[in-house]
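Aim 2 progress. For Kinesin-like protein, the working sequence is reproduced below.
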Amino acid sequence: MIITITLKQRSINSKGNEETKTSVINLVDLAGSERLTDLAGGRNTVTGDKFRESVAINQSLSCLGNCIHALAEKANGRNVKVPYRESVLTRLLMNALGGNSRTAMIANISPADVNYDETLSTLRYADRAKQIQNYVKINIDNTDKIIQDLKEENEKLKKLLERDSISSRQSLYADETSKSRLEEEIEAIMKENERKLTELRESYEDRLNEEKQLKLQQENDEKQIQMETKRKEIETNPNLSNLNFDEQLVDKIIFIIRSGSNLIGKSEECQIQLMGPMIQDHHAIINRTKNEKIILERCDDDCRILLNGDAVTHKVNLTHNDRLLFGTSQLFVFRNPLDPNFDTTKSTIVTYELAQEEIASKAGYKLNNEDNSIEQALLNKELLELIPAVEEANAISEELEKMVHFENVLVAPLFLGKTGRKPEPHVQVINSSTGQEFLWSKDKFLDRMFLMKQMYHCYETGEEQWDVPLEQDPFEDLESECLIGTAQLYLQPLAYMVEIKEHLSISDYTGQEIGVIYVEVIPCDQNGNEYEEQDNAYVESPQELLGRSVSFVVKIINCRGLPNKFTEIYVKYLMFIDENYSISEKISISINPTFNFRKRFDYSHATQSLIDFLKEGILNIEVWGRQLLQSSFNSTVENEQSISVATANPEQSSKFSLQDELEKRGSELMNGFKMNGRVIDPNKQSVIVELLLLKKQQARMHQRIDNIKKLIEIAEKQRRKMIPIDILKELIFTTNAESVDEIFTRIFSDEQYYRMNDANNSTTCNIN
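Predicted structure tokens for this construct:
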């Protein structure tokens, strides 16, 4: 589909002439290439009108591709002809593709592997298209004025002819001569107009572009000279070069350390001006002495500087490749070409990751570099990205007096409903004014971090409206509910139609137990009648359920021992392929809520995927609640009976000694999930489930052995030396006690049964 919009703008120029600017907008929705064969067999699956339409679409796209290829070749200096006339589509888009236009093309691609060929073709298409070079100029049309002038001239000539007309034949020659003269005059006027049009076509924009190109070339030459001068300065003088998480931004900011005193800070009088959290007006001084020693000292005690990860508290000598962190975000490497040990070919390459890992290590974050797995490498990378960002966020919060503190935490997989063993880095948000705590994912924190930096920039530049409403404040979390903890229930017994009644541990984000939850999962019939022991619902193998109807009831009875800072507590979970959560009612009691939440699940035809889910799946039960404010929390502590399972950490002030706090939190973070309270073993529930099944199977085997013993005792009393195999099979596969007694009664009280089996030569089992 092509939508063409033509715009015309008429105006009076500085000479008083009317001019018209014309623009044509082409909005094109290109059809994707049509697949004519199926992916599996390669057969043609499109016929009739659909086939002809698909062929036409593909032909048009092919012609467009040829035009784009030719235009790309032309842009590279080759003399090729662009085949615009091969299709209607390319003829319509001739001006948009290679004419006087600015063109934007959006390529839609798919990440699915089945669309690999289309995606690759589209990317190649786009790569060729971006090589096209168009030269744009304004379309100004002055012909309206010229046409009007010519019309006026024609009217004058007509009136002149009418006034001087001679009817006599004698004057015919003179009349013809006059007409010829007028025609010559008109022709001369037209030629003059053509000349003016030619001059107008050499538009002002072209001349302006030439001047711009000349000026740009001059500026580039000046920049080149400046860059060459600075390069020579860098090669011959000590300097500070920036490090950045983005490799494209490394070494983009370089400060030359000149002889004498070099003042560092955010004041305009500083020779090295830095901005950012915890950067003071006068932050540090670097002295370059006459004997080329480089000495660093801080201007005040509250000026934070880290040298190779250690805090700078007094004057220090800088050596080549030292890492310097000013404040919380300005990271530099010191390079000194005057150092005798300086050698660009052998010197260690200092990277942002290396510097941050050094800072993290000195602050107590011991990264696991012995584990060479991809998962551990990704975890280390995420931590190195989060650690400096959290420091910067805390510094911004302190300067803006937001009373919010951020901490790096490793979240246990159980808390996220995952079965892996690797934790995931998150950020804990502690609001000191309300006593509330929230857990942010890495992505959420980094998104908020951009807004925090923007707010701090407005504050730093003195804007009056730097503070924003509460709903827009990146330091605030307006979510009234938070995830208290999770519990995992292994469903394996249900695959054997065995009921589950368990007290499950509720784990918080550190993997510690913060409470228990009582859950029951009981098999039932389609009417909701729960199976009992005598109903003989047990199956030897889960595969026996394939194709049968399967029903069960999930009961979440209560929670015990939850932290007493929550209210409106509820539980929710997702069963099998459900898209919507099963959610209980909210209970206001914060410590020991009772839900009595019951829900039945019916599957009329058990599929293999359902059986696999019951055998190997885990039901992740989430406990949610709303955090009480600090005053409400204190009131709740006094009024409710507390069953303490895990104690909360004391509240911290947002005013803190940053380095000491980092060391403390770093050691806590990297010690895993053993800070406080009882640590939950993720394999505990699995072992309990397996023991439950083994116990059930063992009881079944004992029952069978007892039945066979009883059968043998009765047979010996009646002096029977042979027992039919059919009787043994029936007895082995019968688990109901009443059915067993019925078999015994039916067999040993009926002599005809044995005579019938003897007559039929039934297979028997001899008793020796």
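Residues 481-628 form a domain with the Immunoglobulin-like fold (CATH 2.60.40). This observation will guide construct design in the next reporting period.
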